[in-house]
Amino acid sequence: MLNAELPLIAEVVISVLMVTGGLFAFLGSLGLVKLRDFYSRLHTPTKGTTLGVGTILIASSIFHTVTSGRLSLHEVLVSFFLFITAPVGAQLLARAAVRRGIPNISGAPEKK
């Protein structure tokens, strides 16, 4: 465990990013529970948790960069993988739902 003192500005930035990331992840999870149809349920966790985890990874990168004194790129690689795979997975799920004929009940017009 590192016993390094962080500068106040780093502590504030990391704390704000962690709380923001937690809120995004919470709102994405809440949307998964509260929304009515498949497409809305697919949209909120994909966007919310991607932003939440991305923000938390940025906070982790800042923490490790400040404590170690050199640039930490592990979190950047994880973020890149997350931002590439989450939208692709969501699109594949949506296409499968359209092909299976899952109805859209949110009020948006359907493409015919």
CA-CA gap between termini: 58 Å
- The helicity comes to over 70%
Low-confidence spans: pLDDT under 50, at least 5 residues? none
How many strand segments? 0
Mean pLDDT: 86
Structural class: mainly alpha
Largest sheet: none
Query: How much is the radius of gyration in Å?
Result: 18 Å
Strand content: under 5%
Order of helices and strands: HHH
Count of helix runs? 3
Number of domains: 1
Shape: elongated
In short:
It is built from three helices and no strands.
Question: What topology does this entry show?
Answer:
Elements: H1 8-34, H2 38-68, H3 74-100
Helix pairs in contact: 1-2, 2-3
Descriptive account of the structure:
With 112 residues, the chain is mostly helical. It has one domain (9-100). It contains 3 helices and no strands. It has helices at residues 8-34, 38-68, 74-100. The radius of gyration is 18 Å and the shape is elongated.
Characteristic terms for this protein:
single chain, 112 residues, mainly alpha, 3 helices, 0% strand, elongated
